[in-house]
Amino acid sequence: MSITISSITPDFVAEIGDVDLSKPLDPAVFAEIKQAFYKYSVLIFPGQDLTLEQHLAFSELFGPAERERTLDPKATPSRFNGAFADISNLAADGKIWGETSRQRMYKAGNRLWHTDSSFKYLPSLCSCLYGRTVVPVGGHTEFADQRAAYDALPADMKKKLEGLTAEHCIAYSRRRNGFAEFTEEEQRRLPPVPQMLVRTLPESKRKSLFVASHAGRIFGMSDAEGLALIDQLVTHTIQRQFVYTHRWRPNELVLWDNRCTMHRGTAYDDLRHVRDMRRVTISDVANSCEQEGVPLPAEFVARQQRVA
User: Fold this and answer.
1) What's the chain's Rg over C-alpha atoms?
2) How far apart are CA 145 and CA 261, in angstroms?
3) C-alpha–C-alpha distance, residues 142 and 207, integer Å
4) What's the pTM value of the predicted model, to 2 decimals?
5) Distances 163 to 75, 114, 219, 260, 289 between C-alpha atoms, Å
6) According to the 3-state scheme, what is the secondary structure of the chain?
7) How far is CA 256 from the centre of its chain?
C-alpha cells in the first residue's frame, strides 16, 4: 500500500499518512517517503508511537546520526545521550528545568531562525523531531523555505551571492541571545566553520539559500558588511509567504531538510507545562563548500594548519 501525501503547499510541507514508522519499512514505501522529502522538505507523520530504538531506526534510513552533543554532558547533564538531543524543557532528572538552568539559557537560542548543525564542518542533512508530550499553548515550530526565498531574489542579488562563503559558529547565534558561557572543551570542539551562502540540492538541482543565526560573517567582507548581508537574507527568507507554522500534536514526528530550510521554536510557558521532545540529526555527506566544488577559504585553511 502506498503512503498518503497531503501537501500544505504545492512544494513545501506535507503530511504523510498510511505508514507506521514503528515497523520496518518496505523499500518501496521508503522510496516514496524519500521522494516526498526531496520535494516538500518538511514531512509530518502524525499518530506515531515510537520507542527510542524505532525513532533512531527510521532516522538512520537517511544516513548516519550525529552522536556528539553540543554541550558538554559533564557541565550540562541531559536525559539522553548518543544520537538523541533533548528538545524539551526537562532536566536530566525528568523534572521541569529551573529558571536559571544552563540548559534553559542555552536552548533559548532555538527561538532564533537556524538550521541544525550548520556550525559543524560536516553539516546536517536532516532532523527527525518526535513529540511525545506537547504544550496546550505555544511551543510551535516555524519552518522557512530557503529554496523559494532564493528563487524570489532579484537577479543582481543572486549574482552577488555566487561563490560567497559564510562563517558559522554556535557562539554567534548564542551571543545574539545573551548566552556566552561555553566551557573551554565546548569551544575547542566547535570552532567556526565555512559554509556556502547558496547551495544546490543534488536531487532536484534547485538552488537554495543556506543562512541561519549561526552565520556571523562572510569571508572576503568586513565583519559589518558581512553580518548586514546575512541579516538581510534572513529577513528576506522569513517573510510570511515562505513560512509554515507547525502546531504540534502528541506522538507526532516531523522530518525536515536542513540543507534548504530554517526553523525556530516559538515561546511557551516552559516553567509550567511539560514539552517532551527528542531529536535525531542526520549528517550530510560533506561540507557545503566541498559539495559545491568551491575551495575552502584560505583564512580557514590557514587556521586549521595552525591548530594542527
Assistant:
1) 19
2) 5
3) 21
4) 0.96
5) 39, 21, 10, 17, 9
6) CCCEEEECCCCCCEEEECCCCCCCCCHHHHHHHHHHHHHHCEEEECCCCCCHHHHHHHHCCCCCECCCCCCCCCCCCCCCCCCEEECCCECCCCCECCCCCHHHHHHHHHHCCECCCCCCCCCEEEEEEEEEECCCCCCCEEEEEHHHHHHCCCHHHHHHHCCCEEEECHHHHHHHCCCCCCCHHHHHHCCCEEEECEEECCCCCCEEECCCCCEEEECCCCHHHHHHHHHHHHHHHCCHHHEEEECCCCCEEEEEECCCEEEEECCCCCCCCCCEEEEEEEECCCCHHHHHCCCCCHHHHHHHHHHC
7) 8
Q: What is the pLDDT of residues 232-263, one digit of tens each?
A: 999 999 999 999 999 999 999 999 999 999 99
Buried b (16+ CB within 10 A) or exposed e, 188-203: eebbbbbbbbbbbbee
Report the greatest alpha carbon distance in the chain.
Answer: 56
Per-residue pLDDT averaged across 46-70, rounded? Answer: 96
Output the average pLDDT for the chain. 95
Q: What's the mean pLDDT in 266-283?
A: 98
pLDDT tens per residue across span 112-169 = 999 999 999 999 999 999 999 999 999 999 999 999 999 999 999 999 999 999 999 9
Range 169-187 average pLDDT? 83
> What's the rounded Cα separation, in Å, for the pair 65 and 124?
9
Residue 182's pLDDT is 82
Sheet holding 84-86, edge to edge: 4-7, 14-17, 42-45, 252-257, 124-133, 276-283, 84-86
